[in-house]
Design brief:
Blueprint (H helix, E strand, L loop, with lengths): L1 H12 L4 E5 L3 E12 L8 E5 L17 E9 L8 E11 L6 E10 L8 E9 L4 E9 L7 E15 L2 E16 L1
Antiparallel strand pairs: 1-2, 2-4, 2-10, 3-4, 4-5, 5-6, 6-7, 7-8, 8-9, 9-10
The structure holds 2-acetamido-2-deoxy-beta-D-glucopyranose (3 copies).
Subunit structure: Homodimer.
Pfam families: Dirigent (PF03018)
Protein name: Dirigent protein
Length: 182
Amino acid sequence: MGIPFLLLTILLLSLQCNASPVDGNGKVANLLFYLHNTHNVSDPSSVLVAQNTNATAHARGLVPFSSVYVFDDVLTEGTASTSKVVGNAQGFYIETGKDGYTILETIDCEMTDGPFKGSSFLMSSRNQFSNPTRELPVVGGRGAFRMAQGYGLLRTVCVDCLDAVNPSKGDIIEYNVTLYLR
Ligand SMILES: *[C@@H]1O[C@H](CO)[C@@H](O)[C@H](O)[C@H]1NC(C)=O
Ligand SMILES: *[C@@H]1O[C@H](CO)[C@@H](O)[C@H](O)[C@H]1NC(C)=O
Ligand SMILES: *[C@@H]1O[C@H](CO)[C@@H](O)[C@H](O)[C@H]1NC(C)=O
């Protein structure tokens, strides 16, 4: 226990993201990044893999009930998709709400840059994406995030964004994640 904790302490001391001690038992880290989810483009980062045949006919919201999407999304430092890539998020979301605006989202975020490079954490919960802000619980992680707990605050930056700094039309979501490390 002593050595891993020491290594973690050394790792955290070299962070540029915010990490500070919490009551002597662990550390808290805050990660802020932007997820880019593209769907109606030639090489989309999320694809529809299944849907009940009646889903579209009964659709009440944006995403027909029962739709299953798999995604591999880029995570960047800034809101622009052309800004520095800091990680990627792989997972799936299922339209579990008959309202057409609520997905069950399971997302594994792996950092590919910075002090947490190679480590990932998993969030999983329902996500009513029609709300401007949402919360997802962190249910665990790998590497530096092993046994992590925490929460992510999500904010929609824009939907179907297409401008000079976002050439691949997609949705941009801010993820502000607070992790309690052990
Ligand atoms: C997908 O994009 C095409 C052209 O860019 C557009 O005509 C079509 O309406 C879009 N479909 C959806 C579902 O957004
Ligand atoms: C679709 O709806 C029809 C009519 O309500 C029903 O007979 C059929 O079983 C449904 N199909 C599926 C796959 O749920
Ligand atoms: C991110 O979340 C933390 C804690 O929940 C909060 O203190 C901070 O202001 C948030 N940052 C942004 C950019 O929203």
